[in-house]
Amino acid sequence: MLLITKVTSIHQDDIYDIRINLLQKEDLINKYSLQEYGVYKEYWINNVNIISNKKSTSFYSMVDICSNLDIEEYLLFQEIDKKEREAFTFYQTNIEEKYILYENTINDVVIKLKEFNDFLTLDFLCENKGLFDQFYLNYK
Question: What are phi and psi of 105, to 5 degrees?
């Protein structure tokens, strides 16, 4: 699976910022015809990603295979191996985030806009770079 994250600025030594100004929210929702899916909580415990909303909690094992930063398009490409795993009880996490999720799927590319208190992030998920390239030509 390919996870592509919109980058807003790139600094030296491959340090980059993925925070998008909240003022861009409506433009992004309209551009990608995103629908609101409500409040989500996301937790990380090592390489386990736990995503929870009012209806369900999902557990995934996430392994980074490789990553590449496209400095011309301001996109971070991450090839990941994502597998659903059994639920378990947890109390302590490495990372804990709360956001409002907006999402849509266009031409087999899942677009996820996450609204945090002070910023947004924009991710695209698809099976391969060819699918993303076709999508991105129309939605740049």
Answer: -120, 125
